[in-house]
């Protein structure tokens, strides 16, 4: 098994000619992705262990490995390879239509971006990916082919932006699904039911564009958000689980 390291140490590739692992640098370590065509458990474990060895040779660090659609047996291979479960990301769904929001929102305009970024970073200061976003980060997502400025709903109070609900339509799915991609409210305006009504605004926009099924991703331990989504009729569909291992 050989490891190939790129010049900027942003990607590590491990392969035995059939199965492979790709390690990509992320803000808090390395993300491990496996390609095991045969699906053999022992090969996955071997690649996870080899990934740890590669990082040990690269001065150490944190490894993160995700399993999509985790079940009761998903923990076995990562734990055997020395990884520990660290995060569950739930996908929730519900059918549309839904009741109308009591809020009035408007489409995003480019001059809104500084306020949107500020609110995002205040609301998600605790989040491993969504925190500390930059203008470049937002513009990168806005350059994606699915982006629709009308689907980024902006909430104002006395001409000041206090929140936003960013939606995404998955046209590649049949039937197409609408996602609450990011929703954030200025912390000074949280806790008064605004989150529920702002979510409804996003769902209303999705249903006005012919979407009949909505989805979103939420941290399993985000009790406040899960309370809101449960009250809106969202139900758990699947769990994506992250595992981590620290190499020193």
Please characterize this protein's 3D structure.
The chain has helices spanning 41-56, 76-80, 113-123, 135-142, 194-208, 223-231; strands at residues 2-5, 11-15, 20-26, 29-35, 61-67, 84-95, 106-107, 152-157, 160-170, 177-185, 213-219, 235-247. With 248 residues, the chain is α+β, with helices and mostly antiparallel strands. Strands 1-2-3-4-5-12-6-11-10-9-8-7 form a 12-stranded mixed sheet. Helix 5 links the parallel strand 10 and strand 11 (213-219). The chain starts with a strand and ends with a strand. Mean pLDDT is 95; it is low at 1-7.
Give me the side-by-side strand order of the main sheet: 1-2-3-4-5-12-6-11-10-9-8-7
Order of helices and strands: EEEEHEHEEHHEEEHEHE
CATH superfamily of the largest domain: Gcn5-related N-acetyltransferase (GNAT)
Give helix % range: 25-40%
Secondary structure: elements and pairs:
Elements (H helix, E strand, L loop, with lengths): L1 E4 L5 E5 L4 E7 L2 E7 L5 H16 L4 E7 L8 H5 L3 E12 L10 E2 L5 H11 L11 H8 L9 E6 L2 E11 L6 E9 L8 H15 L4 E7 L3 H9 L3 E13 L1
Descriptive tags:
12 strands, single chain, 6 helices, elongated, twelve-stranded mixed sheet, 36% strand, alpha+beta, 248 residues, Aminopeptidase
Offer a concise description of the structure:
With about 250 residues, the chain is of the alpha+beta class. It has six helices and twelve strands. It is about 25% helix and about 35% strand.
């Amino acid at each position: 098994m050989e490891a190939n390291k790129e010049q900027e140490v942003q990607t590590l590739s491990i392969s035995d000619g059939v199965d492979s692992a790709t390690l990509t640098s992320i803000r808090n370590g390395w993300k491990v992705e496996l390609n095991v065509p045969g699906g053999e458990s022992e090969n996955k474990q071997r690649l996870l262990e080899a990934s740890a060895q590669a990082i040990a040779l690269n001065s150490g660090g944190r490894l993160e490995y995700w399993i999509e659609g985790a079940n009761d047996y998903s923990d076995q291979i990562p734990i055997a390879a020395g990884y520990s479960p660290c995060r569950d990301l739930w996908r929730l769904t519900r059918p549309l239509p839904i009741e109308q929001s009591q809020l009035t929102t408007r489409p995003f305009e480019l001059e809104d971006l500084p306020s949107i970024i500020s609110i995002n970073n205040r609301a998600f200061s605790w989040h491993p990916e969504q925190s500390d976003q930059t203008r470049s980060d937002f513009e990168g997502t806005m350059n994606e082919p699915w982006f629709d400025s009308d689907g980024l709903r902006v909430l104002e109070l006395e001409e000041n932006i206090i929140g936003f609900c960013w939606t995404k339509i998955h046209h590649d799915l049949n039937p197409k699904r609408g996602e609450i991609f990011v929703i954030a409210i200025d912390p000074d305006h949280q806790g008064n039911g605004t989150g529920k009504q702002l979510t409804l605004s996003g769902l209303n926009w999705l249903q006005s564009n012919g979407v009949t099924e909505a989805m979103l991703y939420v941290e399993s331990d985000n009790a406040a958000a899960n309370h809101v989504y449960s009250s809106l009729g969202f139900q758990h569909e699947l769990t994506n689980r992250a595992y981590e291992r620290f190499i020193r």
